[in-house]
Design goal:
- Helices cover 39% and strands 14% of the residues.
- By secondary structure, it is an alpha/beta fold.
- Strand 5, helix 5 and strand 6 form a beta-alpha-beta unit.
- Helix 7 packs across helix 9, helix 7 packs across helix 10 and helix 11 crosses helix 12.
- The structure holds nicotinamide-adenine-dinucleotide.
- Nicotinamide-adenine-dinucleotide binds next to helix 4.
């Protein structure tokens, strides 16, 4: 099999696929992006980015380095390497939805040829590469580990992270055979500083789920503590600050209005689903963490209710301004953001909800779409309660505190003041 892998096809050009394509382009590979969305393909070919982490200039640099996007799977027939970066959401019943992975694998199977390296990066349950991907590829008559290489390599992209990107974040790879691991490690070694071989595909798949489950559980721990510390009159933010001074054995996690994004609220379900489906018993830590984190938005709504109650007011008919509705600071991604259930819980109580976010112009809720308030200062003055849900770095929090009648700070980020309460 060739060791000099020049032609790469990245399937799925989103938050994961596009930075991968960029890093590979800069290392001198000939990169083609394959996506089912002609809107995304056309905009990338026109030099326009649709993800926060890449600017239009960076897309144009990629184009100059030979990158093209296409909806035509025939490009796979020339590929030395195909990497699958398509979404792995949950289905209606809360179980894994592998439809996009299956369709990507079907496309590869039609163009699979000897010597090719196929890597799955989409987050998924242990066994997917061996049990779902391999049989479809082998139905072509070619054998994994003999005629083509097959591996799983979990993505660790952290949108908006200014320090860790593709190059300096160690990359785990697990192949179907040790030779597959080596082939995948050689490929990623072209543009990633540190490649970490795992024992096999299942270990690499599970490593990703451990990372996200670990975050999910620790966030749930502090979210549960936030509730009882409030009741006990203990400042949890100060507790975490003090505990964080321990130089070993402790990592700080912070409470918030719930978990968001496409990883933390979703990925642990892939693991608990697998444990339940294969072994018949629950993954109790995950289920407990889900229960705690999922109830945070209604807890935030209740705290707004308490704040108004203390002032002799009802939620019904009260103006509540939500600040920051994306799932992370400084990005425009709203997927699974807990801001939505917070807004809907407040609306269910009769509040008049408005929002401000420097990254979102129009926000879609079940009750209809809201436009961003045109002027933050006057919106703060008008709202009986403001709720800081996401502390975007562009917020002048001193000015927010000065302008608000009352502020519930769910991020522990605002300066202290008599009319400010933290979660
Ligand atoms: N975004 C993150 O921070 C992050 C981090 C780690 C892992 N992941 C995982 O990476 C995977 C991809 O996530 P993402 O955030 O990049 O998703 P995304 O929604 O940003 O992008 C996915 C892209 O795949 C395309 N697509 C969908 N089905 C396709 C198909 N059958 N063939 C070709 N293209 C198809 C979509 O049009 C879209 O452009 C998921 O499994 C996710 O869990 C995401």
């Amino acid at each position: 099999m060739p060791t000099d892998r020049r032609q790469l096809v990245v399937i799925g050009l989103g938050y994961v696929g596009l930075p991968l394509a960029q890093a590979a382009c800069h290392s001198g590979l000939q990169v083609t992006g394959l996506d089912i969305s002609s809107r995304i393909v056309d905009s990338l070919n026109a030099g326009v980015s649709h993800v926060d982490d890449l600017s239009n200039d960076e897309i144009r640099e990629m184009r100059d380095a030979g990158f093209t996007a296409t909806t035509d799977p025939a490009v796979l027939s020339e590929a030395d390497v195909a990497v699958i970066c398509v979404p792995t959401p949950l289905d209606e019943a809360g179980g894994p939805d592998l439809a996009a992975v299956r369709s990507a694998v079907d496309m590869i199977a039609k163009h699979l040829h000897a010597g090719m390296l196929v890597v799955l990066e989409s987050t998924t349950y242990p066994g997917t590469t061996d049990d779902e991907v391999k049989p479809v590829l082998e139905a072509t008559g070619l054998k994994a580990g003999e005629d083509f290489h097959l591996a799983f390599s979990p993505e660790r992209i952290d949108p908006g992270n200014p320090v860790y990107g593709m190059k300096n974040t160690p990359k785990v790879v697990g192949g179907y055979t040790p030779e597959c691991t080596r082939a995948a490690a050689d490929f990623y070694g072209l543009f990633v500083d540190t490649v970490v071989p795992a024992k096999g595909t299942r270990e690499a798949e599970t490593a990703k789920l451990l990372e996200n489950t670990y975050r999910h559980i620790n966030i749930a721990l502090v979210n549960e503590m936030a509730r009882f510390c409030h009741e006990l009159g203990i400042d949890l933010w100060d507790v975490i600050r003090a505990a964080s001074t321990k130089p070993f054995g402790f990592q700080a996690f912070y409470p918030g209005p719930g978990v968001g994004g496409h990883c933390i609220p979703i990925d642990p379900n892939y693991l608990s689903y697998q444990v339940r489906a294969k072994l018949g018993y629950p993954f109790r830590f995950v289920e407990l963490a889900q229960e705690i984190n999922a109830t945070m938005p209604t807890y935030v709504a209740r705290r707004v209710q308490d704040l108004l109650n203390d002032a002799g007011m009802a939620v019904r008919g009260t103006k509540v301004l939500l600040l920051g509705v994306t799932y992370k600071p400084d990005i425009a991604d709203e997927r699974e953001s807990p801001a939505k259930p917070v807004a809907e819980a407040l609306q269910a109580l009769g509040a008049e909800v408005s929002f401000h976010d420097p990254h979102v112009a129009r926000w879609h809720l079940r009750s209809g779409a809201l436009d961003v308030v045109p002027d933050l200062d006057s919106a703060l003055r008008e709202a009986e309660v403001a709720v800081l849900l996401q502390a975007h770095s562009s917020y002048d929090l001193k000015a927010v505190v000065a302008g608000a009648q009352r502020l519930l700070d769910t991020r522990g980020a605002a300066p202290e003041a008599p009319h400010v309460v933290t979660l």
